[in-house]
Amino acid sequence: MSAPLLSVHDLKVHFDVSRKRLFGGGVPAIVKAVDGVTFDLKPGETLGLVGESGCGKSTLGRAVLRLLPLKGGRAVWLGQDLAKLDTHAMRSLRREMQIIFQDPLASLNPRMTVGQIIAEPLTTFQPNLSADEVKARVKAMMAKVGLLPNQVNRYPHEFSGGQCQRIGIARAIINNPRLIVCDEPVSALDVSIQAQIVNLLMDLQKEMGMSLIFISHNLAIVRHISHRVMVLYLGKVMEIADRDSLYKNPLHPYTQALNSAVPVPDPDIEQSKARIVLKGDLPSPLNPPSGCPFRTRCPRATEICAQEMPELVAAGPDHMVACHHAGPIS
Ligand SMILES: Nc1ncnc2c1ncn2[C@@H]1O[C@H](COP(=O)(O)OP(=O)(O)OP(=O)(O)O)[C@@H](O)[C@H]1O
């Protein structure tokens, strides 16, 4: 088995949102956006991150790229603790780790041409390349992501949302990164375009062998693209498993509820499927429930759930779950 590209252990990212810090005075208020997350990511693997809005997906994606300061825990990249790298070492690592954002147009500089946007990371990390070489690589990259190379001098606003996301992908992959964090890369796109972008990412991954952390609300898309999937709830891991185990044999009541909402293309199955409706709303991240954060909405909650956060324990060969009452739907 290959060594992990990224090993994340007990990672914590907390935001101080107290009025005291922001305006002076007031009571302390801390959002534990990511609170003790542990996982490994192998080379060439896609890990899907799912969970309701505000559960910490984006914060986790940014924290592992060291774009946010850690409150605790470690993110280890090929044996190196990222928090211990100095600015210079971290800067050269940036070439290996990239991010693609949700809003493709907003993530592109409107004053730069597509050619300049895609060339920027190349010339930053390989300043000795000749202008002709840069031009040739940019055009080859445009063709690779399904853009017309003769549109190299156009500006982002002249492209559709899907094309802008292709530009973002070209910019992310031009330096052959080992990891791309894809933060909701298709949720702002038309449904018809979403599959094209997901398939492009899958083809590029097959060809270039990079790892992906794929963040999405859409469990059907995550199922299509991921090798493994991690379910987050209020900053904590509820369940992490290989794709088939997670979708066919979910053991956490939260995963089971999320799965039950995924539409099935067969109308007969879809009609007869039992949908699990969670009671209540997501609790405030400023005042999460004691013990297991999911317990206030959990159909299986008992006294112990209010007292202790369950450990994330092995439930199968590539399957970990954090629940006092983990088990298949009864
Ligand atoms: N810069 C920040 N300052 C204060 N709180 C923040 C900050 N960024 C995120 N948060 C809070 O941290 C929690 C996790 O946010 P995050 O954006 O990571 O969730 P998410 O799962 O990606 O949500 P979404 O799917 O809506 O993007 C939320 O409660 C959010 O309000």
From TrEMBL:
PROSITE patterns: ABC_TRANSPORTER_1 (PS00211), ABC_TRANSPORTER_2 (PS50893)
Keyword Nucleotide-binding: yes
GO molecular function, one term: ATP binding
Major location category of this protein: membrane
One Pfam family it belongs to: oligo_HPY
Gene3D superfamilies assigned: P-loop containing nucleotide triphosphate hydrolases (3.40.50.300)
Bilayer topology: Peripheral membrane protein
Subcellular localization, as worded in the UniProt entry: Cell inner membrane
Origin superkingdom: Bacteria
ABC transporter domain residues: 13-259
UniProt xrefs under InterPro entries: AAA+_ATPase (IPR003593), ABC_transp_ATP-bind (IPR050319), ABC_transporter-like_ATP-bd (IPR003439), ABC_transporter-like_CS (IPR017871), Oligopep_ABC_C (IPR013563), P-loop_NTPase (IPR027417)
Keyword annotations of the record: ATP-binding, Nucleotide-binding, Transport
Annotated family: Belongs to the ABC transporter superfamily.
Identification of the protein by name: Dipeptide ABC transporter ATP-binding protein
Protein species of origin: Dongia rigui
